[in-house]
Structure formats: C-alpha cells, structure tokens
Design goal:
Strand content: over 45%
Oligomer: single chain
Shape: elongated
Largest sheet: 7 strands, mixed
Number of strands: 11
Order of helices and strands: EEEEEEEEEEE
Helix content: under 10%
Structural class: mainly beta
Length: 120
C-alpha cells in the first residue's frame, strides 16, 4: 500500500510564502513523475506543477516564476515552494505521484489534500 502525506498548508497574507511537502511511503520500487494539483471552490482540479524522476519541471502559466517544485528522491518527498502568493492561489492543494509499487505495479496515487488560504 502506497500513501502520500501532505503538510505545510495554512493561512498567509498576499505576497507571502508557503512551502508544501508530500512524502511517499510503502512498498515502493520507483517513483516516476510527481505533481501538485489544486482545486478552488467551484472550480475543476488543475495541474500546478510537475517534476519527472529525471528532467526539468513544468509549471502552469499562472504560477510560473512564483512557484518552484523540487524533489528529494532519498526521502521520497516532493516540495512546492510558493512565493508572492495571491488570493487566487487559495485552494486545496493535492499531491499526486506515478508510482511503481508492490503488489499493484505502476499506478497513480493521491494525497489527502492541504488547504492554502491567501487572505489579508
């Protein structure tokens, strides 16, 4: 069984920063792509940033230059550093990972979500 556990959400003022973390655990052979999604009230879930096991990350246009995704493969953890936060960044942020694990093989997993609220 693979589990993704997120942390780091909270309330921050516009222009502030937060760092989200997502740690994977379980009988994992390999973690392929790791992603951060978000879902605001009344909106569809959207991809914010993604990072492959090797290669460059990709970002949604709305967060390019403000957010940074990176990973620590030894810790099986992906991070999302969010700077210059805006009210429109308010959402529940979800970690997603493409994982090869025992016994199900390769499949995607989701974390439980963490709330980020940007407000003065």
């Amino acid at each position: 069984q693979v589990e993704l556990v997120e942390s780091g959400g909270g309330l921050v003022q516009p222009g502030g920063s937060l760092k989200l973390s997502c740690a994977a655990s379980g009988s994992i052979f390999k973690i392929n792509e790791m992603n951060w999604y978000r879902q605001a009230p009344g909106k569809q879930r959207e991809l914010v940033a993604s990072i492959p096991d090797t290669g460059s990350p990709n970002y949604a246009d709305s967060v390019q230059g403000r957010f940074t995704i990176y990973r620590d493969n030894d810790k099986r953890t992906v991070y999302l550093q969010m700077n210059s936060l805006k009210s429109e960044d308010t959402a529940v942020y979800y970690c997603n990972a493409d994982v090869t694990a025992f016994p199900r093989g390769r499949r995607g997993y989701w974390g439980q979500g963490t709330q980020v609220t940007v407000s003065s």
